[in-house]
Design brief:
Layout (H helix, E strand, L loop, with lengths): L1 E3 L12 H5 L8 E11 L4 E4 L8 E5 L4 E6 L5 E7 L8 E6 L4 E7 L1
Antiparallel strand pairs: 1-8, 2-5, 2-8, 3-4, 5-6, 6-7
Length: about 110
């Protein structure tokens, strides 16, 4: 098990369906590289439309999901895209509050 503190990275832009469908109320800023948490370990996390606790829920991160970080954080808020299993097309995306980082089986990037 790896405990990773998420920090700003450079990104290869990857947006998910919420971005494409216009569900976000705050759009993310692409960074210059991508970091991936493979096999998220933990309880379900809500993905929100904006980096604020009162924002609408637009998706979830579930145990075992792959979580991609490719955008600039806003404080402890991260915009992420989520895929599950061997999927390569994001199934959900949004803002998630990660003040203590994220737990995953592997972290790359």
């Amino acid at each position: 098990m790896a405990v990773v503190t998420v920090c700003a990275g450079l990104a290869q832009v990857s947006e998910g369906p919420a971005f494409t469908l216009g569900l976000l109320t705050v759009n993310p800023t692409p960074a210059g590289a991508e970091r991936v948490c493979t096999g998220y370990l933990g309880e379900s996390l809500q993905l929100l439309a904006a980096p604020e606790a009162e924002a609408d829920t637009i998706g979830d991160v579930m145990e075992g999901d792959h979580v991609t970080f490719a955008h600039e954080p806003q404080g402890d808020w991260q915009y992420v895209t989520v895929t599950s299993g061997q999927a390569v097309i994001p199934q959900s995306d949004g803002w998630v509050y990660l003040p203590d980082g994220i737990n995953c089986t592997e972290f790359s990037g």
